[in-house]
Every structure is written in C-alpha cells, then in structure tokens.
Fold this protein.
Amino acid sequence: MRTSAGLPSPQRLPVLDLLRLDRGAVEAEAFRRDLRQATHEVGFFYLVGHGIEPALTDELFRVAEAFFALPEAEKLAIEMTRSPHFRGYTRVGGELTQGQVDWREQIDLGAEHDVVPTAPGQPDYLRLEGPNQWPASLPRLRAVVSDWQQQLTRLALRLLQEWATCLGADRHLFDEAFAEAPATLTKIVRYPGRDDEGARQGVGAHKDPGVLTLLLVEPGRAGLQVEHEGSWTPVPPLADAFVVNIGELLEVATDGYLKATSHRVVSPPPGETRISIPFFFNPSLRSTIPVVTLPPELAADARGVTADPDNVIFGTFGDNLLKARLRAHPDVARRHHRDLVGG
C-alpha cells in the first residue's frame, strides 16, 4: 500500500504526513515534493499527522447526528430557501449537480459577515455575504462548528503556504486573499441509503469552485470516488485522516499545473447512511487568486486551465462561487435572485 505521493492504487490515494514538516529540512522538503506530485498527478490525497484532536472530530460527528435527528419541522424552519445567502438546511433531493438530483440532506454553514447593502455597479457575488441559519434547539452546533472552522482554517492556510513553497513561490503568496473576510464554508452532509441501482447519485461528478477542501468522512462509510485517467477510483475513509483536494482556483493559479479533479459520491446501500463533513477553504469573495510564476521545469508541465463551455472558471472567487451556488440550488436562485437566472 502506498504511503507517499504517486498514482493511486485501486483503493487508495497518496497518504501525506504533515508531521514530516517538523522532522528537519530533509523530511520537510520530501513532504513538499510529495504534496506537489500528488496534486499535479491526482488532485487528491489523504492527510495524516494534521494535529486536529480526535475529541473534536468525535464531538462534530455527535452534533451532526443530533442535527439530522431533529424533527423535520425544526430543520425546515432553517431551510436554505429562506436565505438569499445560500445558508441553512437542504432536504433530500433539494440540490442538483450537473442538472441531476443529489440524494442527500445537509446544512451549509459559512463564515458570517455583515450583509452588503445593494448598490449600483456592485458585484452580484456580494449577495452571498450574510448570516447563517442555526437550529434553535441545538445551540451546541454553533459552538462546535465555530471551533472546527477556526482549527481547519489554520491547518488549510499552512497547507497553502507549503504549496506556494513547493511551487517555487514566496511562502506567503496566497495569504492576502484570506486576510479579510474569507468565504470559508462547512457542509454537514447525510447520505441515506438507496435501493435503486439505477439511481445511486449521492452527489454527482463535479470540481470544487474554491481553493482547497478538507473532507472528514464517517469511519467505515465508503462512497467517495475520484476520477483518474478515465475511471473512478474508490476513496474509502482512512483512520484519523482528512481527504484533501484542490479546487478550481488553484488550477487557475498554476495554469493547470495543479489539477482540480472531478469527484462524486455513490449513495450507501439500503439500510445504511453516511455522514461526511467537507470544509471548503475559500478566500474573500472579492479576491482574485494570485498567479504563481512557476520555475521553468514545472511550467513545462502546466496543462492550462480546463476549457469547458459548461463550466467557465473565473479567477475572482466570488464569480466562481456564485456560478456554483446558482446551479446547485435553483430553488434559492428563483426565490431570491430571479434577475440573475431569468424566468
């Protein structure tokens, strides 16, 4: 079984140990080399040695289960259709990927910023700024998620600094984009089992619109698949590990040297469920991701930004995120942003 960067085996992605950064210059450089290779060739890897306490992950899973166990009326009281900022609960079947229904329920909890008053000439993506919706009968959800977001923000920023270093750039190249009002997002997702073999889309194939994603998956619950060389590679949970992938903005920043990879989730079998909690490390909506000037030996392998007329990738994060949200939640778009979608 591989424990360093490289092509995935039939059941595993590269496994990177963040603790190598603290074991001297040689080990740190080896970690950065593996990080660069994994995200150039595959776009996904497992991260261990990340320093997030198991007690916090356990509590997050407990509070997630408590949320999904709430009466339907309490969850629908904070349904996303009530929020012009695309925050809150989405019932099973309430989100689309590639125009097809995703079979999952979830709550979207972003970084909370003041609502931006509408003004002439203002970018449309600023409509995404605003408060979350929290369940009234589960106050500890807010406290746990807040702690989670703070700790994962520190972890993700450290990873981003290592990417800059291994690509030959200044270590702090990306810091400014996250310095003010970052648009981070935590999703708490539950996939129910399905008995229809012809319709197993938990979430359809897609690429993440931001910079990077740290995914926590319920132990023992498979379903995530990553596209690699024309086929789908299963990504089962690994104990005490995050699944990490880069988003479209890092592809933009590196002219395609780093790879934003399509991935999907297959629904569990009947009688089972699966909880997963992705954390999307996103910069300020207003930020334009800085471009890395790659060393010649790396630039020679840059593939250019993916050209897809059905998924234009924007360098400004707010444009990229708004595009994704309007597509994924057409009910929210029709209710609150009809001028952007027509009809």
Notes: Residues 115 and 129 are 5 Å apart (CA to CA). The chain has one domain: 15-341. Residues 1-11 have pLDDT under 50 and may be disordered.
